[in-house]
Design goal:
The chain is α+β, with helices and mostly antiparallel strands. The chain contains 7 helices and 12 strands. The longest helix is centred in the last third of the chain and has 18 residues.
Length: 229
């Protein structure tokens, strides 16, 4: 089933809006600041260029910025994690996501796809690569390995037009990116499908993919080209 058919046959919906401010926690005897502890909020929330009202990123060197204004995680993944992590409480926002959604998946959503959510216009930019703070949230370091291996990364959004969003909003596809490179394609290219030259060429041409990703893939592509000579 291709992405267009998927989106026309499934309702896309914002299940939960989750926010959190930086807080100090102790990890291995060291105090660190993290905003990964998100909680659902009721009612309309203003979505701005860099984040939602009531939400902040703790370490702006690796989190946040225009290409990572919002982190999305599909609600459909929660059943998988319930089986993978039996007995663990998994409320919306537990993965640090701002938007818990229905009807979107990494293997159907293209980098560069544009969506209307509430009165805001957003664009898909990149998959989420987990850091040690996910381990803090779950109280176990193996979650990072499990998360990457699962392919259930979620993805980030850039805000093209600010607006208000609210749990229950329908998510409307406004424009499908013609590059036809999915979020899952980028994750696979980074984690395990590292020698796919054809996909590397397509990835570096994606205007919506942040420059840091494109530079990384260009460097890898250059090595493959040199080796092929």
């Amino acid at each position: 089933m291709d992405g267009k058919t998927f989106r026309n046959s499934c309702r896309m919906k914002l299940i939960s809006v989750n926010v959190g401010l930086p807080q100090l926690v102790t990890r291995n005897g060291t105090t660190v600041s993290t905003s990964i502890f998100k909680k659902p909020v009721a009612g309309p929330v203003k979505l701005r260029t860099l984040n939602l009202d009531g939400d902040r990123q703790a370490d702006l060197s690796v989190h946040g910025g225009p290409s990572k204004a919002v982190y999305v995680y599909p609600s459909e993944h929660y059943d998988f994690w319930g089986q993978e992590l039996p007995g663990m409480n998994l409320p919306p926002g537990v993965f640090g996501e701002n938007f818990t959604t229905e009807g979107l998946s990494e293997d159907q959503v293209n980098i560069g796809d544009k969506f209307r959510i509430g009165s805001a216009l957003v664009m898909v930019t990149e998959p989420r690569m987990p850091c040690y703070k996910l381990g803090i949230r779950f109280g176990r370091t193996d979650i990072i390995r499990k998360f990457l291996a699962s392919g259930r990364s979620g993805f980030y959004l850039a805000v093209l037009e600010e607006g208000e969003v609210e749990a229950g909003n329908e998510i409307q596809l406004i424009e499908q990116d013609g590059g036809d490179v999915t979020v899952s394609d980028i994750t696979r290219l980074y984690v395990r499908d590292k020698h796919n030259v054809q996909l590397l060429r397509r990835a570096v041409e994606l205007d919506a993919l942040p420059e840091s990703w494109r530079a990384y893939f260009k460097k890898r592509l250059g090595r493959h080209v040199r080796l092929a000579r």
